[in-house]
Fold each of these.
Amino acid sequence: MDYTTVTTTQTQTASNAAAGGMVMILGIVYLAVLILAIVSLWKMFSKANEAGWKSIVPIYNYITLLKIVGRPWWWIIGLIIPIVQLVVLVIISLDLAKSFGKSEVFGIFGLFLFGIVGYPMLAFGSAKYVGPGGASSTPTATPAAPSAPAAPAA
């Protein structure tokens, strides 16, 4: 009996099993991240007074996101042009952060660079939708009209 053949076959079988286990673990992690992204976008759309189902329809979700941040729908064209896409995504991230009352720093780091953390923070945190681009939903104080002069004391 040739022992090198048996050892090689056993090593290949163990190696294949380990690779299969790694693929299975990566698949589970991928599904968990995908579910987190879907639930986060659904909740975020709901906070912005949009139907949550709009977040899972492929192109319509970007059109709705542009509406949430106050940008025109035709900006979707910028998302299919390679270099322009990065610029448009940065602007959308900044506007989305402002729309939920967050800073520009949160827009860059929380939404653009680390969206897997930032979007759940918007969805499940205390952030409230304040309007497209951060426009406050509460009316601003208007200056009072000048009052009539007081009557002289008698």
Amino acid sequence: MGLLVELADFAPVFAAREERPEDALARARPVLAALIDDSLDAVRSDVFFARAARHHVAVAIFSGRGSRGELKARIAERGIPYLELPAQAADLARVIRATASGSPAKRRDSCRA
């Protein structure tokens, strides 16, 4: 994912080993968007999305290693951008830009269960 982010002309920042996604958001303070692996428990957590919205961080989700796509429909219902891997750098750039251009209030409303 990091290489794809770089190929899309963005600078990736990663969560530290064993760091919770919400802690990584607070530490890294993403400028455009946070990309999160759909195999992490955080994508099932309304608390994570609420914290991201509170910090005005746009979130997009990508299919991680071992992804079965089981959350794809729920993610789409919430209006959260989803990227299936493998993907091209141009596809990732489009998702990052689209994610970053959404209003925080709209994302917060779409993240409610």
Amino acid sequence: MTTGVRGVIAPSHSEKGNVNVLGRKNYTNEELDRARTSLESQCKAYRALVEAITTKTPGKHVGAALASFEVPFFNNLVLALDRPFVHRIRIVTGKDTNALNEVELLCDSIMNNNGIFAGNKVIKYVPEQSVLGLEVGDPIRLTEPSFERLSSAFFTEIGARFL
């Protein structure tokens, strides 16, 4: 049976007859489209919520409530952005500052560093070459516009490197 997925298979798994892909060298257009559609629908739902709340109940308390919701929502969407492509391999993503590696660092920082941006020893992160321009030690506080820039760059990079 062929899955259409090329990847790196751990020898211990292939010897047992299991085919677990531990790393991906390519993705399909369908996978890319499915991920993009999922995120677009979540952003659309967010915009509808904002519209409904601000037009029905305007006021400074509403604005404060939305502001307190926006950052955690879009920080969590970074995790959703990354998940379908989490098995991408370094030989394809590279070690330079690009949107794929920036998302990897963001996810690791959100999950393991209390939302404070951290680098690592593998990725050669340069803030001026990144989408968001975060410095190591900055709090991660994504908004709708910053998430849109990041996700657009991420999908462009996935398409260029993995399709």
Amino acid sequence: MKRRSLALSGDTVYSPSFVTASQGADVMFHDAMNKDMVAAMGRTLAQRGRANTAQIMTDIQGYHASPEDAARAANEAGVSTLVLYHMVPPVPARLIEPLFLGKATAVFSGTLKLSEDGMIVSLPAGSKAVKFSSGL
């Protein structure tokens, strides 16, 4: 019987150590931040006199991976499925997904999903399948 596994990152930039630890996993869960969007938010906040919040938009970029970096990690680890979660900024509509992902789909050719509230990811025993459903 094939053993199933997942790899889970959190609040991290691209990490070769995480890639090594993820080798052979079926699914990689990775945080993702669109740094261009966050930078634009920071500039707008600064223009509106919200210097402290604008600074946060700068600071958080040092400990979140871009969608492209998450895709690179998934590709190098050889996983078949990448689920992006803890997305900054949140993606409010499917129409925005391509803008948020940037070039991630060109970097990773496997299954790439953006997490949603209530998303259930199942790894059936004895299979290579990765199944998605909703608990809501």
